[in-house]
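Thread: quick sanity check before group meeting

JM: Hey all, I'm pulling together slides for Thursday and realized we never actually wrote out the predicted structure for the chain we discussed last week. Dropping the sequence here so it's in one place. If anyone has concerns about the input, flag it before I start.
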Amino acid sequence: MRQDYPLLERLSHLRSHFIDPKLSEKLILVLGCQRGGTTLSYMVLTAHPQIQGKDESEVDTHYPLSHQLQDAENHICFKLPTRTADLDFIRDSFPLARIVWIVRDPFSTISSMNSLKMTNGLSWLEDQAPIELSSLATLFPEIKKLSADLSTVAIGAYVWKYKLKAYEKFSKHFKATLIRFESLLEDPQSTLVPVLKMLNLKWNDTLLQHEKKHKNQVYWGNNVGNRERDVSRAMPPLNLSPQEINEIQIILAPEIKKHYSDRTFFSPYIQGLKYSPKCRNSK
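JM (edit): ok, ran it. Output follows.
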């Protein structure tokens, strides 16, 4: 769940602990859309012996402090999907950080948003997506012009859309690599090679066994650390109706074509088919 701290309080706290921006060269930030593979990316990366890490639930400020960067022997990885709107702050505070941005297909991402239940009984899509979309207006003022009558699925689609657009903004200021969730599952070594090159690290087979490193961990969103890499997650059944899938396709058609035109699974959406054979209540 997104937790907002008063900006001045966060700035003051960080300023008192963060001394030398050069230390940010050790920092890896995993960013992307919620329910889009940021936890898997974090677990895989921190399985490397030269990368330690912190999940966003493990630190009050969500950001690394000076002593954490100083104490890190090599790299330290933080997963911060809720802090996308803090681009200016991240740029000023951690100018040498490396960015690993994960993108998962929008249908599976929004379906997962719809399936995850919060403590109040609402889905993440109903409870948190409107808050997340509103926060992104800091980077994309046009969000304020969107209709106030958007469906929950449409809100999820716009969260996905603007999270991906945010990568373009971050990549102008940082060394950044975009990876696909599906590729990370299906061919992790080829997918991670560009990331490791950006970090000046060599391949290590521990990256293929993240469940051993994280076996005793449970991360936010019901993500258990001992779950092995499961290729079937690249094409999960969708907790979306045919109408909802069509709505997503209409909003995100350009992004789907750009990032997923090579995926056989998505060709029905790109060609205008109204439903998936695996979607909820399809006929």
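AS: nice. The CA atoms of residues 90 and 230 lie 33 Å apart. Residues 267-278 have pLDDT under 50 and may be disordered.
JM: adding both to the slides.
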